[in-house]
Design goal:
The protein has 392 residues and is an alpha+beta fold. 24% of the residues lie in helices and 20% in strands. It has helices at 50-63, 80-92, 95-98, 142-147, 168-194, 202-206, 217-221, 301-306, 353-365, and strands at 12-14, 36-38, 68-72, 111-113, 119-120, 123-124, 128-132, 227-235, 240-241, 244-245, 253-258, 264-269, 276-279, 285-287, 294-299, 316-319, 328-336, 371-373. 2-oxoglutaric acid binds at residues 231, 233, 255, 260, 267, 269, 276, 316, 318, 330, 332. Residues 226-337 form the Fe2OG dioxygenase domain. One of its GO terms (molecular function) is oxidoreductase activity.
């Protein structure tokens, strides 16, 4: 019988987080064993095997933590060298060549976004990047796109030719598909950790079951519209980047404090240059360096929403060092609810006894259950009466 859980979302207060530069030595997430998970334990063909259950138990522990964990032994690790070779070759190209796939020419929001064009919390982010999403055909029906503007997100990516940047399309699409599969497997493992039925959570990711709730038959005809995004990112050094002068030469904001808006983020951070930081529940910023053989995973805001705050979306940022010796690169894959799905939080009453106990223990360790975060709570939660794609 399902235990009765009374777990509800803890309160969150926004405050200016404490910083390592204020004196104390910065702690590293890599030093906490609870935040290291071994994906090779997960047997996709047999989620109830003892090895899979071991994985599920370690995931449950991470799920009541600060929203980040290291995931060791995924198939992404063996693709890492090819991916980082591609990323450094891409950003070494002259700006004019990178601009041939400028995002401004894609109504699907794919392609290159040059240095300084992006902002977080109204401040310039010191990075440039390429955005990708599923390689699909565009929706041509203009009326349908007007009724459901999120359909503009569907379409092809922009890639450089092999002559200009060898393996661009192949390497990115291979990483994308592999990351998507890991995200799907993790979602199944999260269902087991929560103790809910198979599909209770993944239905929002696949869009299989929740789309036929409104009366636009043309939209229904498109079927489920799963979605994900991926970015290859550079945090460059130097006062002038591609001829663009930094607005604020003293700024170190690679990307400002934020919570990812979607489902799970699978991140491959630079091995050479640090800068990724996650905020713990007391507001302290921890460094999250790359650990060989792993990727970094964090929970996005829709997982927090669907689990009633049992799982917290990770507050994080990248601190840049413009006067450093080397540019920093990272590769981020963001899984997302399907665009035409309607999100509806799970019933906390159906969560497993183990999960509720783990959550209560974790909560008791916090300062009176209160979570300090530099980002307001739920600033990107989807609305219940709109399909996910509508939310901005
Ligand atoms: O570059 C990184 O390490 C993190 C990037 C990130 O948090 C984001 O793009 O949402
Ligand atoms: Fe992020």
């Amino acid at each position: 019988m399902a235990p009765t859980a009374t777990a509800t979302a803890p309160t969150t207060s926004a405050s200016s987080g404490k910083n390592a530069s204020s004196g104390s030595t910065q702690q590293s997430l890599s030093s906490f064993s609870d935040y290291h998970l071994d994906y090779s334990l997960w047997d996709a063909a047999n989620p109830t095997s003892s090895s899979s259950q071991q994985f599920v138990a370690s995931l449950r522990q991470a799920m009541v933590g600060i929203g980040f964990f290291y995931l060791h032994n995924t198939p992404l690790s063996e693709k890492r060298d090819a991916m980082f070779s591609l990323v450094s070759r891409f950003f070494a190209l002259p700006l004019e060549q990178r601009m041939t796939i400028d995002m401004d020419q894609s109504r699907h929001f794919r392609g290159y976004c040059k240095f300084g064009d992006e902002r977080t919390q109204s401040k310039q982010d010191l990075r440039d990047q390429v955005d990708y999403a599923p390689e699909v055909e565009a929706v041509e029906d203009e009326g349908l796109r007007e009724r459901h503007p999120f359909l503009n997100l569907y379409g092809p990516n922009q890639f450089l030719s092999d002559e200009v940047c060898q393996g661009h399309k192949e390497t990115v699409l291979d990483w994308f598909a592999t990351a998507e599969e890991v995200s799907n497997q993790l979602t199944r493992a999260i269902e087991l950790s929560l103790g809910v039925e198979e599909g209770d959570l993944s239905q929002f990711l696949t869009g299989e079951t929740r789309m036929k709730q409104r009366d636009d038959h043309e939209l229904d005809k498109l079927g489920p519209l799963p979605y994900a995004r991926m970015k290859t990112i550079r945090y460059p050094t130097g006062d002038v980047v591609d001829g663009i002068t930094r607005l604020d030469s003293s700024s170190t904001q690679g990307v400002g404090a934020h919570k990812d808006s979607g489902w799970l983020t699978l991140l491959a951070p630079s091995a050479e240059v640090g800068g990724l930081e996650g905020q713990d529940f007391s507001g302290e910023w921890l460094s999250i360096p790359h650990v060989d053989g792993s990727i970094v995973v964090n929970f996005g805001q829709q997982v927090e929403f669907l689990t009633n705050g049992i799982v917290q979306a990770a507050t994080h940022r990248v601190v840049s060092n413009p006067s450093g010796k080397q540019d920093r690169y990272s590769v981020a894959f963001f899984s997302s609810p399907a665009m035409n799905t309607y999100l509806q939080p799970l019933d906390s009453g159906s969560f497993s006894k183990e999960l509720v106990e783990a959550w209560k223990k974790a909560e008791a360790k916090r300062n009176a259950g209160e979570i300090v975060s530099d980002v307001p709570k739920g600033d990107l939660f989807a609305k219940a009466d709109e399909p996910f794609g509508w939310h901005d």
